[in-house]
Amino acid sequence: MSDPVTAAAGITVRDVFRRAFRIYADRVAVTEADGRRLTYAELGDRSGRFAAALYGLGIRKGDRVAVLSETRAEYVETYAALASLGATVLTLNIRLHPDELAYCVESGGPVALLCSGPLTGAVREFRDRAKTVEHWVCYDEPPEGFRGYTALLDAEHAPAPDVEIAASDVHNVLYTSGTTGRPKGAMVSHSAAATRGLRLAQWFGLTADDGFIGWLPLFHCGGDESLYATMHTGGTFGALRRADAETMFRMIERDLLSWTLLLPGVITDFLHHPRRTEYDLSSFRFAIGYANMMPHVVERLTSACDVDFYDAFGQTESSYLLAHGVVRPGTTPTLRKTPSPLLDVRLVDIHMNEVPVGQPGECVVRGPGVMSGYLDDPDATAEVFAGGWLHTGDVLVRHDDGTLSFVDRKKYLVKTGGENVYPAEVEQVIAEHDGVQEVCVFGVPDQRWGEVVKAAVVLRPGADLTAADVVAWCRERLAGYKRPRYVQFLAAEDLPRSTTGKLQRHELAKVPVRPEEAV
């Protein structure tokens, strides 16, 4: 038994769900695109029955269970069921290559794997490598070799016993993108997950009348934390299996949903959809995303939809709510962000000394929402927590008023002729041009300078802009060594993106430059 005082002072994700099932019983907890709805009482009943089924299969506290699925009601039920058992959820990214999924499963060692029907094919590609998995469960009609979720739920099982769960126990593992190597599993404790949701609810003033448009996958911190925020406040979680703009419109109108993340790729689909004005979106009150990537698009979105936009900065390891700046309807984003509550933020040099106002420094943080380390990777954990603070790997600048501005990722630094160039600085300048919808800047090899800057640009519909125009724009606003030496124009759909819509510089940088791109 743990110390009773410590136990009494802690909070778990099980506590968050149980409170919601009890005090919001008759309210709608989850809604889906096809019209299916679950009240909090129904969600509590179904998750309790599934917990009993999992316990009957032999799943116990401390076991790991992998989930490979789109966002859907069954995923929410699984989260609640496993939280009640004290088992850890390994959240697998559905966009990973089967070899990457195999790595996550081999290293994570789950005893069971749950997946949706469309993803059973991907599972079969690595199933023979998943030596620890004893139970394979499909949320839909199960193919050969899988148990059916519905059959498990409907079978008679003795209720799962209450187990003691410590606030420090690992609730789930969220995998990083793996763009510079194998995905790393960020372990999020029960108290950290509950705290992350509470911080969102407080920061955005959420109430029971708010509903989240949950297109963002639950294997991403943006979807994961937003679910807990919804459970804290008794709102509605709209579970969307993919980011389809018109489906969002229908659910906003039907279920009075009020907030979401609109990330690159999704935000332009939402804004420019030809049928957007045919729907009543009056309940929609704010969106969250990255204003620095496309400031003009954000300005037009807030004006067209009469909503606020929260310019985000955060990460899986610390929460997506590390710092935010608000953009009011029709205003130009300032790109300045205010640190959010319950996270202590410092900007430091390589020796962990605080840097002066106006000087770039790495952002390091600590607080109750920070991860517990990387799954079974003590070396990476020691490195990221060097000096007793979580190193985000992001370079920021602090202003006199205490706000922060993002400079760039440390690893994206371009070294050209002995000078340092942060791609995000160049991106912000190019993105200010009214003809630019989106831009990604990165370094490419150069025999003379070692590296030079290349820009991949997506133009606004109807814009007429040449590579020379882009360079001339930069010459007026940047030092000469920072201007792009190559400019490539692409369609938005041709840009490689992560699950959250972030452009993948490493994929663009793999493509050899062409002579006609030189400027």
Written account of the structure:
30% of the residues lie in helices and 26% in strands. The chain is of the alpha/beta class and 519 residues long. It folds into three domains: 4-242, ANL, N-terminal domain (Rossmann fold, 3-Layer(aba) Sandwich), CATH 3.40.50; 312-409, Luciferase, Domain 3 (Luciferase, domain 3, Roll), CATH 2.30.38.10; 413-517, ANL, C-terminal domain (GMP Synthetase, Chain A, domain 3), CATH 3.30.300.30. It has a nine-stranded mixed beta sheet, with helices on both faces. An eight-stranded mixed beta sheet has the order 7-6-5-3-4-8-9-19, with helices on both faces. A four-stranded mixed beta sheet has the order 2-1-11-10, with helices on both faces. The chain is globular and about 70 Å long. It starts with a helix and ends in a 9-residue tail after the last helix. The model has no long low-confidence stretch (mean pLDDT 93).
Q: What keywords describe this structure?
A:
26 strands, 519 residues, Luciferase, domain 3, Rossmann fold, alpha/beta, GMP Synthetase, Chain A, domain 3
Beta-strand percent range: 25-35%
Provide the gyration radius in Å: 23 Å
CATH superfamily of the largest domain: ANL, N-terminal domain
Rounded mean pLDDT is 93
Distance between the termini: 68 Å
Most strands sheet: 9 strands, mixed
CATH-scheme architecture of the largest domain: 3-Layer(aba) Sandwich
Quickly count the helices.
16
Q: Please state how the strands of the largest beta sheet are arranged side by side.
A: 12-13-14-15-16-21-20-18-17
**Percent helix among the residues?**
25-40%
Give the beta-strand count: 26
The CATH class name of the largest domain reads Alpha Beta
Low-confidence stretches: none
